[in-house]
Amino acid sequence: MQALIFDVDGTLADTERVHMAAFNHAFREMGLDWVWDEALYTELLNISGGKERILHYWRLVNPGVKALNAQDLNDRIDRIHQLKTAAYELAVNQGEVSLRPGVLKLMDEALAVGLQLAIATTTSPVNIAALLRHAIGSDWRMNFSAIGDASTAPIKKPHPQVYLQMLAALQLPASQCLAFEDSSNGLRAATAAGLATIVTPNSFTAHHDFSGALRVVPDLSQVNLMQLRQWHSASLR
Q1: Are residues 21 and 8 in the same domain?
Q2: Which end of the chain is more exposed for a tag (fewer CB within 10 A), N or C?
Q3: Number of domains present in the structure of the chain
């Protein structure tokens, strides 16, 4: 095992409630009467990517309506997403999000023995930077050999594009890497790229089907590198 590849939202940190609040803030700013509560947002998380989620919901509440042409609709979605991203970044900077238990300890343990770290997410670069700058510090990028996000991988999970990109960037086969996810879409993306995957569900994803995961654990607080090596080795037999 030479590298650990992490998803971000829901995996590195419990971000989804803050994302949900940021979406609702953006809707109010745009004069929309949309309100995404926890039950609705849990369903919408089946759609990977913030802009994709907005577009899906617009089509849901406006079936058959073509009041906006494609460009106008894209511009409006872009503006909603910009407002949402700004609200999310402000919330993170105000300390409303922290890394999940055991994440930072495991990263430090991996780096100390020379393992590479990578990120494979469908979220935007701004969201990643806000979270990790607050959690790790201004030099957070130094910890990661490769970062894949919405800007590099336009085909969202469950497609494996972002994981395949990270394997190429790390110059490692999937058999030498371990992925960390929190959702069924993420698990499907990672396993489609050939990666053994540890799943740490959260309240928004606990009901998902995690068939095919190497292990499903509540969080990483009771997981160490020795255990991961043992689980990873067993997966190769």
Answers
A1: no
A2: C
A3: 2
Active-site amino acid positions: 7, 9
Q: Look-up: residue for tokens 């849901």?
A: 60
Burial group, residue 7, by CB count within 10 angstroms (0-12, 13-18, 19+): buried
> Residues 103-117: pLDDT tens digits?
999 999 999 999 999
| Amino acid found at 97 | V
What domain range is 176 assigned to?
A: 3-14+99-235
Statement to judge: residues 71 and 188 lie in one domain: no
Mean pLDDT over 1-19 rounds to 96
Lowest-confidence region among 26-35, 65-74, 195-204, 228-237: 65-74
Q: What would the pLDDT profile of 12-27 be if each residue is shown by its tens digit?
A: 999 999 999 999 999 9
DSSP-based three-state secondary structure for 201: coil
| Residues 182 and 106 grouped into a single domain | yes
Domain end, chosen from 63, 93, 123, is at 93
| CATH number of the CATH domain containing 153 | 3.40.50.1000
Share of the chain above pLDDT 70, in %: 98
- pTM, two decimals, is 0.92
Q: How many DSSP H helices and E strands does the chain contain?
A: 9, 6
- Give the contacts of 131 (CB within 8 A, at least 6 positions apart): 8, 12, 13, 15, 92, 97
